[in-house]
Structures are given as structure tokens and as C-alpha cells.
Amino acid sequence: HMGWQWAFILTGAIGLVWLAFWIPLYARPEAHARISRQELAHIQSDPPDPPAAKVPWLRLIPRRQTSAFAIGKYLTDPIWWFYLYWIPPFLRQNHGLDLTTIGPPLIAIYVIADVGSIGGGWLSSTFIKRGWTINSARKTAMLICALLVTPIIFAANVKSLWLAVGLVGLAAAAHQGWSANIFTMASDMFPRRAVGSVVGIGGMAGAFAGSTMAVIVGYVLQVTGGNYRVPFFIAGGAYLTALLIIHLLVPKLEQAETETEVSPFSIGTIVGFGFVGSIFGSFTGWCIGIVSRVTGPNLLKYMALGAAVGVVIGIVSGVVITSSGSKVGNGRLRDPGQN
Questions:
Q1: Of the candidates 210, 90, 221, which has an alpha carbon nearest to the alpha carbon of residue 161?
Q2: Angle at 194 between CA 330 and CA 257, to 5 degrees
Q3: How far apart are CA 193 and CA 273, in angstroms?
Q4: Do 69 and 197 contact (CB within 8 A), yes or no?
Q5: pLDDT digit string, tens, across residues 162-173
Q6: Which of helix, strand or coil describes residue 231?
Q7: Which neighbouring-strand residues pair with 52?
Q8: Hey, what domains does the chain have and what are their CATH numbers?
Q9: CA distance 51 to 53
Q10: Mind listing the pLDDT tens digit for each residue in 148-195?
Q11: How far apart are CA 143 and CA 129, in angstroms?
Q12: Alpha-helix runs per DSSP H in 225-337
């Protein structure tokens, strides 16, 4: 009754209310009034990073570890965006919900997802405490999450509203558990000075993939008359596919160590620069398609052509860049499996 504008105003105001509680409580550990000496000593117990130059993106891209993280994000981030944007229309179309009745199902989905956010990290931590290697613990937790997503392939066919909500909620929780582990995977493989950049590369990949997923889902729903079966099948298989690629690229989650250069024709160079090239190429194709006012299959063709061209340009550029060695930047990382 208040108009759609108030939906944004009120949700934004909630953040300001939280800020009013956060500002008085937040302080650096050294200046925080509620931290004991023992807690402060524990926080500061990590050894400081050794003095070193920053690691440029052009030195991170050809690492197999970077590709493993970024491709994992590329394949799974858009599934979360699919849930955010397309589940309300799905519930409205398949189960007759409207703005006055869709609230409880959506609340249930995201409350279930909260459990996954905590459970995913707890699961891998439990395995590590029991003596598992980080590689085994992390990938087993991710495999469990990937398997828990797969029942969503049936969501388009179920007649019960709450069964559909349960399937989507389970998949959303599994996604959050997966995310907890894939983010930690970056710190498993890289020194602290490089983790932020690696996560940024993966976030970029996931964001571009989200725009691609939006085009694909819209086109599929258009040609199938609103049938969500294909998007749910994509969601159900994305995590297992991502985990397989991650395992092939980093079978032992080995760290990217410092000292030596990467070979211009290594798997890391070809996959890394080819992948980044495909992302930017696909985005360029999308931009050209939008400017040209094309939609549906024609827009997908622009994006596919752009991705193909981007792969070639990316690989060629990567070979040239890595061949130049130290001219790329001062930061150095060694990939133990580059030869």
C-alpha cells in the first residue's frame, strides 16, 4: 500500500540501524575495550608477511591455482544469481504465488541457506581436526555440497509448493556451503599478499558468468514456454563439473610458491589467459549485441563468437606476456607443476 519505492527505502534503512550498533562496537583489536590480553595475543600470533612486492594480476592469471578458483566461481556463482532472480517468478508461475503470499517460502529458502553457510565451513574443519589433509577435507566437503545440489533437477516437476521450496532451499544451502570452502581454497593455495587479488579475479569471473546465465535462462524460458527444467538441470550439474575441473587443475591443492617464472606454454598459462580472454570476449559480444539491439539466440551468438575470439587473443597474449618474464612485474610466484 506504500508503493514499491518504500520497499527499497525500508530495506536500506535497516542497514543504517545496524550501522548505529556497529560503529560504537567496532575498533581495531589494539584499541578494543572488550578484548583481553590473551585474545589480543592470539589475534596477533600469526607471523607478519615477509616484505615483498605486490603480485600483479598478470602474474596470477597463469597459475593453475588461480584458474581452478576462478573457473569454480564462474560455474557456480551464476547459480546463486539464478536463485535470487528466477525463483520468485518460478514460484509464481508454477505454484500460483503472488507478492502477498510469496514471503514465507522465500524466507524459508534463505533461512535454510543460512544453515549451509555455517555447515560448509564446519564440515571441512571437522575433517581437518580428524587428521585429514586440507586437500581431502576441502574437496570432500565440496563434493558433499555438490551432491546435495543435484536433487534440484526435480524442482520443476514437483506439484507440492513446500517440496519445491525444500529442494531449492537444500540447493541454496549447499551453494553456501560450497562457497565457504571455495573461498577458503584461495587462502589454502596462495600467500596472504595474493589472496585478495585471486578472490577478485574469481569474483569478476562469477559476475560475468551471472550476466551470461541471465541471457541463457531468459532465452530457454522463452523458447520452452516457461519450462524451468533446463535451468534446474544446469544448476544441478554445475557444481560437480566445477569440482572436476578444480581437481584436474590442482589435484593436491598445492600452493603457488615464490621464486621462478611460469612457462609460456604451461597448462596454467594457456588455461588462465584463455579463460580470462573468453570472459572479456563474451562480455564484449554481449555489449555489441545490446548496442545492436539483438536478443535471444542472436545475442547468444554474439557472446559465443566473442568468447571464441577472446580465447585466441587471451592465449596469444598470455604466451607473449609470460615470455617477457620479469617485465610483467616484480612479484614472483612459482607453480610447482608448471613443467
A1: 90
A2: 75
A3: 21
A4: no
A5: 999 999 999 999
A6: helix
A7: none
A8: 57-207+225-259 (1.20.1250.20), 261-321 (no CATH)
A9: 7
A10: 999 999 999 999 999 999 999 999 999 999 999 999 999 999 988 889
A11: 18
A12: 229-249, 267-291, 296-323
